[in-house]
Structures are given as C-alpha cells and as structure tokens.
Amino acid sequence: MDGLSPRAAATRQRILDAALAEFAEKGLAGARVDEIALRAGANKRMLYAHFGSKEELWLVVLEAAYAAKRAEERGLRVEALPPEEAMRRLVEFNLRYTAAHPEFVALLNQENIHRAAYLQRSEGVPALYSPLLGQIGAVLARGVEAGVFRQGVDPVQLYITIVGLGHFFVANQHTLSTVLGAELGTEAALAARERHAVEVVLGYLRP
Prior knowledge:
By secondary structure, the protein is mostly helical. 77% of the residues lie in helices and 0% in strands. Helix 1 packs across helix 6, helix 4 packs parallel to helix 7 and helix 8 packs antiparallel against helix 10. It starts with 5 loop residues before the first helix and ends with a helix.
C-alpha cells in the first residue's frame, strides 16, 4: 500500500491473511478481532490503526478476494481466443477457481446473509466486472459473426449461469453428496462436472 513502510505493509498483509482465514471459518459476526490479531502476530492496536474496525476489515478482505479472482480471470485473455475456446476457458476457470478457493465461497455466502450491506459500499468491486462483461459481449459478437454462437445472448445472464454452474456445485458439495448418495468431493467428480458445465454453456450458445 502506498505510503507504508515495508514493515507496516508486511504487518497489514499478515492481518489481511489472518482475517481472511478467520472470516471464512466464522463469518463476520463470529470472527473476533483478538483472534485475528493473534493469528497475524500483531495486536489489536495495529489492526485498528490499519483498518479502523472489524467491519472495515471485512470489506477490505472481501474486496481483495474479488480482486484476486478477477486478476486470474483477466489472465485468461479471452479476447485473444477463438469464441468457443474463450467460453470453454471461462467455464473451466470459474469452476476450478471456486473449487480451489473455498474461502471465497464462504465470504460470498456470508455477505449474502448480510444482503451485500458491506459490498454495496465498495466502488472497486463493481468496477472490476464492467470490463469482464464487455469482454464476454465481445466474445459473443465474434461468435455470432463466425456462425458458432446464436444471436441475442445477454452477457449478464450468461455470466451468472457460468458462475452458478460451478458455485452451486462447490458450495453445496457436502449436502449434494449426502442426498444424492454420490461422492462429489473427488477430482473425478469435479472433472465430470467441468465437462457437463462446458457442454451446457456451449450447447446453449450454438445457433
């Protein structure tokens, strides 16, 4: 962070890392500042100096989690891929990222319990997604021009579907495994879900 000494920046990052773990395990209401400070090897005074309050720390952690996902998503460079491959990569990425980051799922579930009361205060997170929707719209347009995608697909609805196909599977893995009598926590189950999700999205997009 600009203006911080290397030592202060390192302390701030340790607090963020500790807060992510604590919030993912216990949610905003259950997390304790004392425990976050202990995990970070810091003290409460340092935490309050950097973030002001537990609620402000929650928002910073949430924003950082969204930013980390978008940074990796941008690395896909979908604008440089053929339309069908671009969509395939987006579906695969969103499923795999969600599976690899259960803490992201936990944070989103908690923020939804709070009806996005904290996220609504963020200017940065919505700004991260406007370019993504623009990229998806451009991929769709290229697909239509190439004759591989149908016309009239809403980028917002498509992205919600892509994310939902992965997020629901990962977030509800334990309950689904129980009620369906299937072990969905394995790599084989994840790979099967990945194939299915790709087929669903590409099948929907065909002219």
